[in-house]
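Troubleshooting log. The previous structure file for this entry was overwritten by mistake, so regenerating from the original sequence record. Sequence copied from the archived sheet and checked twice against the printout by T.R.
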Amino acid sequence: MAQILHELTSFLDGLPEPRIVMDADYRIVAANAAYLREFGGNRPVAGRTCYEVSHRFSVPCDQAGESCPLKQSLKSGAPQRVLHLHHTPRGDEHVAVETMPIREEAGRVKYFVETLRVVRQASGRAAAQGLVGRSPAFLGMLEKVLRVANSDAAVLLLGETGTGKELVAHAIHEASAREGGPFVAVDCAGMTETLFESELFGYERGAFTGATHRKQGLVEAAGGGTLFLDEIGELPLSLQVKLLRLLETGTYRRVGGLDWLPADFRLITATHRDLREMVRAERFRKDLYFRINTFPIHTPSLNERSGDIPLLAASLLERVDRKPGRKFTAAALDWLAARRYPGNIRELRNLIERASLLADGDAIDVPHLSEMAEDDTAEGGDGAFRVDRLMGLGELENRYLDWAHRRSGGDVSILADALEVSRRTLYRKLREIR
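Regenerated output below.
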């Protein structure tokens, strides 16, 4: 087994992806050069536990509220994949982790090879672009994005307005084999039959008055890439038939044309509507629903990922502020975390952009935010926890935990100490209310 371990370590050292070899006690036996560079800060890691190096945890991941691929792999005897938030020399980053068991001659699992890939499409720190978050709800969504991205399966993004569904669609495209192709977005709201066909399929010269030249349609423009149909729930029934024909046959015909042309795109759709209810009410075709709903992904509202609000606020300020380098005061972040956002990230962005225009100094404080805020979204001017009716103790606890989680800025360690419970218990309770 020692000879096999030596050969395995030598082989892994020549691979470009970060990889480590661990034993069943979570001890790192060996690490290749890519791992030391990306995650170890070029310092030795052999003999240390994987959870201490990657998370700064004192216990294995599954005892700290996260899934542990090593434990899952040991139990199943098969490779396991999870998404983790890892500590790196650059700060916390989302990392896709795959663990593969290595067996000795007798068949017993002896070692594990762990492969790590940094997720470029999302950040666990404040970022000027892309997806940002680290809450359980956000991580659950991101894990689904990474699982489906490298296939051609049709994806349906579901969630409230303003939750960033187009950004999620972009992330799926960028993580897919079609990344080098175009990403074409189409807003289905308000589409008339004539406009839908000419925009989606294009038209031939002379097809109608004013058609002085052949026009490429968006289906053709998305060739080799991704076609994103936003607000597909707004598409009239008459147009749903035409879309279904395109998806079923993989062909289309330009307006005024005779030839059927092949389509080559990956489909992503999005809606804030309840399509299942629309199918029951016969306002959305059942066959189209099942055609686009191969892999549904829920994009969480800000209420579901309230712990991300301080991180999102810092990211949005970096994106909209004309005066670079400004920060929020601690009181301002507390004020933002205590609010409700019916308009989700879009509403939060508007609030921050207004504040950036009102502030003259180097910091944005509560008065800059509250001056033009819509008061009916606040939980209370002082951010206090309040209830307005009698309710069951279970609901009361859930509402208090949600409020306390937002008030703590999403820091589970601080919140667990304040509530006098273990982090494991708190993680479990937070998962139950998400």
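The mean pLDDT is 88. Archived copy saved in two places this time.
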